[in-house]
Amino acid sequence: MPDAWHAPWDDPLAAALHAPGASHQGYRRAGRDKGSLMTRVEREAWLSPPGSAADLTHGYPQGITPGWIRELQARPPAGFLDTPPGEYADVICGWFARWSGCGNITLVPSATMAFAIAVRAALTPGDEAVVLDRSYDSWPRLLAAAGVRVRYARRGSRGLPDATLIARACTRRTRVVVLVSPDNPLGTVCPPAALDGIAQLCAERGLTLIADHCLAPVNPLGRQIPLVPAMAGEDLSWIALADTSKILGLNGSKTGALMYPPAWREQVEAAASAWFFQHSQYDLAVIASVMEDTRPWLHELSSHAGAAYAYLVAEVRAPLTVAPLGAGPFALIDAARLGMDGEQYARLLSDRYSVLTVPVSWFPVGKEGPDTRIRLSLSRPGTVIERAAAALNASAAKRA
């Protein structure tokens, strides 16, 4: 896969990012009408033809897929069309079960669909859900589309989830708390004590905890990442999400997964049936073949992300700072000492250096406010990471 990709900014929505003097508030308003800003920008950047831009927006492993996996993509297992798809699904479910510690797995085509199904199973129009500030932007949008009111909880120290602050955001109409760990975009990991506190809050108030663990398999620094399926007690109502898109660079071949206690099976399966999807036999065969392989492909991906992060820490110079990493395939660069917010800095990198990143301020908060950080993907070849570091340093030197 080419190291560089060009995003087609002739799209009216995306063009707002680059228009001279354009307001990102206007871009954000347009996005509210046309779909998730994150999803739209990532899709346009990923689908575009090779060009001159280095795309570090999305977290899919791009250009670092091992050769043996690429060979599986080119030549799937012999007779794969004659193998019952349930056999491949069992392999994938088994992988998620071993990884999460949960034996109840429902496979769906994507994590986004998994979240929508969880929302349909756990909530009805008029209910409320609590989401953390500056967390994955698609989830509040899907909640709102389902007629659910979204309430934002502030974060505690070091950007970590805090049960006390989540409790303050709850009302008598709250039915669900949404937790993303590792977080997207911040990369924070909810520690065991904090997760215990949130679980206790949910159990005491009869709330369901929807936990997004999609970034958890990528663990560059070897952190302890507690997973709800493994830690949940019998008194907690919960549904957890995972997927393969952040761990397998399969050019669109992916699957999402819902994990839940036995009591949720009927509701989850009923909610999933409304989508009437059918898995691709090719996708199932390739994903199952990778997951059955004994080679340390997941460790290699985490190591690659860790090496990319270490390179940025070593190479990126002041006044820019590289934020501490919890886990996941993203790093945050802070441009505060350049006197720029993240949206201004992302535009500068794109316009002058053809490096595409994502401002942290694009992720929603209860009240709009400036943020000086940008997010960039670590799941890229070394040459792309090197180019990004060079652009960061050049842009900082020019501003200084």
Give the gist of this structure:
With 400 residues, the protein is of the alpha/beta class. It contains 15 helices and 13 strands.
How would you describe this protein?
This protein has 400 residues and is α/β, with parallel strands linked by helices. It has two domains: 12-66 and 297-399, Aspartate Aminotransferase, domain 1 (Alpha-Beta Complex); 80-292, Type I PLP-dependent aspartate aminotransferase-like (Major domain) (Aspartate Aminotransferase, domain 2, 3-Layer(aba) Sandwich). The chain is 42% helix and 14% strand. The chain has 15 helices and 13 strands. It has helices at residues 12-18, 24-34, 37-47, 67-74, 85-100, 111-122, 138-145, 163-169, 192-205, 228-231, 265-273, 281-292, 297-315, 342-353, 382-399; strands at 54-55, 105-108, 128-132, 149-153, 174-180, 208-212, 237-243, 256-259, 321-322, 330-334, 355-356, 358-359, 373-377. The strands form three sheets. It has a seven-stranded mixed sheet, with helices on both faces. It has a four-stranded antiparallel sheet with strand order 9-10-13-12. Strands 1-11 form a two-stranded parallel ribbon. Strand 5, helix 9 (192-205) and strand 6 form a beta-alpha-beta unit. Helix 1 (12-18) runs antiparallel to helix 2 (24-34) and helix 8 (163-169) packs parallel to helix 9 (192-205). The longest helix is centred in the C-terminal third of the chain and has 19 residues, at 297-315. The radius of gyration is 21 Å and the shape is globular. 46% of the residues are buried.
